[in-house]
Amino acid sequence: MNITLICPQNYHGASATGGIYYPMGILLVGSLLKDTFPAWNVDVIDGELYSSLELEQRILGSDVLGLSANTNNYQSCLELAQFAKRHDVKRVVIGGPHASVVLPLNPPIPMAELILHHQQTIDAVTVYDGENAFLQYLAQIAKRQPHFGGIPNLWFRDTNGSIQHGDIILPIKPPRFTDMNFSLIDLTPYRQEHKKEFPAMSEKFVEGFTHVGCAWREKLGCSFCDIPYPFNNYQAPGRFWRDVRESRRQLMVDAVKDYGDCLTGNPERVKALLAARPLDLEDLALSCYGRSSEITEDMADLLNQLHVKYLYIGFDAGDATMLKNMQEGYSPKANYAALERLERRGIYVTGSLILGAPGESRETIGHTEKFAREALHYSNLAQLHCAILTPFPSAPLAKVFLERNPDFSQQDIWDSEITTKRWISSFCEVPHEYIEEKAREINSLNPSSRKRYFGLQRPQD
Ligand code: B12
Ligand code: SF4
Q1: Ligand 2 pocket: which of 210, 216, 390 to mutate (most atoms <8 Å of CB)?
Q2: Residues lining ligand 1, CB < 6 A?
Q3: pLDDT at residue number 458
Q4: Region(s) of the chain under CATH 3.40.50.2300
């Protein structure tokens, strides 16, 4: 069987970090297929690195196309699905964060159902951790009379066209690097790009998870946050380090990019991670996510001892009201304090800001711009991206978005240009054009040469 797996680029605007990180979701899915059925041809493709034409060439001759969808690249997935179906690809399956969304309505509406309802080119949808569902699906289609009933996390159409699904299992287990088959991806270009953008950290990195979920999200959660993990669950530290040792053996790894959201939310677990670090891995460098208000002096010490070289912080705003309206749980002071504490310890910061929360005005944007300009004075600020708030479909703010825009409760396509504009016109005191202009201005301050991209035009057009 020939299986092609693609995580396409955003429909509008490229991600600022494309080409630095390999797509772990489809790598994990592809790894399970290859490890289970070594004779199958599995092509794992980072769609951000190729033009649409090149992707179409790679799809030709596939039996099955698997697509990884987030809300921003979903229409790119649909275009590839249409191409595949016009060129004899037998099955197209979609998975990833957008496919896993559940709209917060009463009753809740699963995006998977909307996808199958609207898109005849999509044969099945996997939700949350999709590798086992996909494997079982493929095992069935290899049979003369496939039977998809009972496959957990799989949505499909049965023979009479009705939409069915197996049990839904929420994601609680942090993905492990030992589950990745790295022969499926060439890490060289990623390492080269990483070296340019993160010079203080070894480019011999692997992406991993010390934990999933976020302690703050369990309490309240930032209003725009759409991470797919409902629970804050940590990898057993001993297992984490053993896995790191194995990646070092295989790939000569010197660094781990921890994708768990906000490591800093649980100081006891950070201490446990440090305490369990074996002597032979004491030199290993890390990057991870942190939340400003959680970076106390003690936490900054722990991060330093763990050799965290870059910390990703969502500063989000320099205005107290905006931070409150985004449910951040801290004031701008915490952002300055975090920068200062990390600067003293030589830890670099990748920061991000968001314009467009409820009540955004010229004055509040002015405060955020002031913060951005002041943040530049800290010698440890390595990157500073500014985004425009996108209402993601299962973020806490989706509820109010859907109240104002009930037509979206039946839509699988949440086009970010449309949703963002509707959001701003309903909830902000300044027009979209002004917010976009200011976001560009703040982005131009970014010490990194990689700027965030805005607008309708697609990067390859
Ligand atoms: C690392 C990361 C990135 C990296 C790498 C992205 C990549 N292509 O892999 C970078 C920095 C490049 C990035 C960019 C973006 N990201 Co990002 N990213 C993450 C992060 C932190 C971890 C993702 C990850 O690797 N998870 C581990 C893997 C194993 O899980 P997974 O990808 O979900 O895959 C599993 C399942 O989803 C499923 N699955 C996934 N794909 C497929 C495909 C098939 C065929 C099947 C069967 C199953 C399947 O099975 C997989 C294995 O279990 C998450 C937050 C989080 N904690 O999840 C945000 C997150 C996924 N990103 C998000 C967003 C919005 C983006 C951007 C659109 C940002 C932007 N404005 O440009 C871009 C999109 C770029 C692109 N084309 O993919 C959102 C998605 C929300 C949503 N509703 O869509 C998240 C959830 C963060 C958030 N805002 O809350 N991102
Ligand atoms: S944005 Fe970050 S800090 Fe906020 S709830 Fe999501 S993961 Fe937690």
Answers
A1: 216
A2: 5, 7, 9-10, 15, 17-18, 21, 23-26, 28-29, 48, 66-68, 70-73, 93, 95-98, 101, 126, 129-131, 134, 175, 225-228, 259, 261, 392
A3: 45
A4: 2-165
Question: Which two three-digit tokens encode residue 49?
Answer: 């690195």
Entry pTM: 0.96
Q: Looking up tokens 């080119």, which residue turns up?
A: 121
Closest CA to 210 of 295, 293, 281, 286: 286
At 249 the three-state DSSP class reads: helix
Per-residue pLDDT reduced to its tens digit, 136-178: 999 999 898 999 999 999 999 998 999 999 999 999 999 999 9
Q: Which top CATH class is 2-165?
A: alpha beta
Helices assigned H by DSSP within 4-89:
24-36, 52-59, 74-86
Count CB neighbours of 80 within 10 A.
Answer: 26
Q: Which fold has domain 177-389+431-443?
A: pyruvate-formate lyase- activating enzyme (3.80.30)
Token representation of residue 129: 């951790």
State how far the Cα of 184 lies from the Cα of 200, in Å rounded to an integer. 28
Q: Which residue has the tokens 């951000």?
A: 48
What pLDDT, in 10s, does the model give residues 17-31?
Answer: 888 999 999 999 999
Pairing mode of beta strands 348-355, 308-316:
parallel
How far is 210 from 241, CA to CA, in rounded Å? 9
Q: Where in the chain is the domain with CATH 3.80.30.20?
A: 177-389+431-443
Q: Give the model's pLDDT for residue 447.
A: 82
Q: At what angle do helices 332-344 and 297-305 cross, to 10 degrees?
A: 40
- The total of other beta-carbon atoms located within 10 Å of residue 242's CB is 15
Cα–Cα distance for residue pair 337/124, rounded to 1 Å: 48
Q: Which token pair is 98?
A: 């957008």
